[in-house]
Request: fold
Amino acid sequence: MGQYAIRRILSAIPVLFGILLVTFILARSIPGDPCKSILGEKATVAVCEKFARDHGLDKPLPVQFAIFMADVLRGDFGDSIRFSRPVTLILVERLPMTIELSLTALIIAIIIGLSAGIISALRHNSPVDVATMIGANIGVSMPVFWLGLMLAYLFAIVFKDTPLWLPPSGRITAGLSATPYYEVFGWGLAKGTAVFKFFEFFANLYIFNSIITRNWEVLVDVLRHLFLPAVALSTIPMAIIARMTRSSLLDVMGREYIRAARAKGVLELNVVTKHAMRNALLPLVTIIGLQLGGLLGGAVLTETIFGLAGVGRILFEAITARDHPIIQAFTVVIAVGYVAVNLLVDLSYSYLDPRVRLE
Amino acid sequence: MTVAQPEIAQLPDTSLVSKPSSLWATTLRRFFKRRSALVGMGILSTLILVAIFAPVIAPYEPTQVLIGIEDVRKRTAPCIHLLGCPADQPQHLMGIDGNVRDQLSRVIYGARYSLFIGFTTVGFSIIVGIILGAVAGYLGGWVDNVIMRVMDVLLAFPSLLLAIAIVAVLGPGLENALLAIGIVSIPAYARVMRASVLSVKATEYVDASRALGAGPLRILIGSVLPNAITPLIVQGTLGIATAILDAAALSFLGLGAQPPTPEWGTMLGSERNQVFTAPHLVFFPGLAIMITVLAFNLLGDGLRDALDPRLSSGGTGQA
Reply:
């Protein structure tokens, strides 16, 4: 197990290096001059030269890449050109929103997808099964941005003045604010320090923050805002999970050992939950891990539609504004996160299924 | 010759042995047994016909502004005479868009773009993927390592985000969006091809053809490709579905096809702020995208089940 884990972790290093390189090249090849796009078309040559010097843009590209690598390894992504603020601070503000959105979507997808898949498999070829599979096929074909807009219309306009009404945009109702837990608990934190950023990151996870500060009003409001974007984002993974659960469970239920268990007189409930599910769930771990990339891509679209200030939106805006430090930092964080999740999936898989380690 | 004849006479009666059917005949038979695959095929054929005969079917030109031609205002809701819309008003089945154009005509012409997007991007990435995968698998060693690590890096980025970044480099526009989506989907095909090359490379029939003097290209086309074709077809059909979705997303964000192109994603993106006042302008283009993607997904699933009998019992396989 240990050896396999080390081998697997080492094999991720060249990929991480590649991610840094690709990110750097992409950010630098975006046409347009950051000086002109930040300071305006009328910026003089002298002003732009100073700007380039200040942001290290006058050095040769390989040197810039080396500096970038060294900075990233120290966890320093520099200052945003557009906002003149440390990128890490912007990450701390924006990342929690996207994490909250993606995780909520994933949880919805797993709960509904898994149950639908199990029911489908147990009632194979019944109307329920057919309906679920038709639903899954439609779900996997739906554009996230279209579903999001349609849900917003349905819940904000059609259900207006009914208890089903839900806010079509934003993260929290204006006027309400989530007081950070460290202020509620009276922890004196110096702003701008690494420790502050660490605690601030968790404070920006509004669900987490409102639960530990027991601010139920904010919690309900945040959940109501999060519901529509999360549902829109969850459809595709939900459909994929439902289909995989069904086919995986069907496959296992046909095996000899299930017949043996039934012949022994094991209760059908136990046959399914104790004998079949354990094996059927294995491939699902991989599939669920793989959905994360799609969720992050979908988050760009969902955040745009629902006016949420998350990673996806700022990355999109940074690309149009040629804000290199932000593009680099956010792309690296997303890609590294994705690699890390896949690594965890692989490792958990080898833990769940010892045969994997031997290959 | 005289010796051979009695031997033939002794052969068993061939009418009792069923004629072996070819792979393609079996596949077709299995394919047509699947209802969902047939539905997908039906939708796709309709879409292709709509795309070809768009000028005949569409009541208006897709970019024709109706100001001064008809008494309609911008973003008018659909008017269908059968459903009680007054007969003195001009009929527009999907309403009027923000620039006073007939939306039905635009949606009809949009089929051309979606199908074009799907086939060209997947065509591009399959060809590049086949070449890269074949080179990697055949040469092995450091070449294999370099190519496959590059593919790993491409796979490490969420595909839509990478496509956005590539379009940002190349500049917005339909061609660049297609190229970006094409590049992003190369790794999947390269992996399939490489795996096929590796599994076939060591077999005796490849040794045999090499001994007969066949060059690498001949072996590739004669022995390797036929083995890889099944997964490539399935992957390709499902890939078209993803490509159409991603292209629509890029256009929606303003990075793909530019107005006034009647591309579904672009249509949806340019009217998205009007969703609360004119939902029909968002509903119909999105529905069109969904139906098209659904057709390719159903077709891909059906093909997979038909081409790979091992999977057909368990329903759909891995995505």
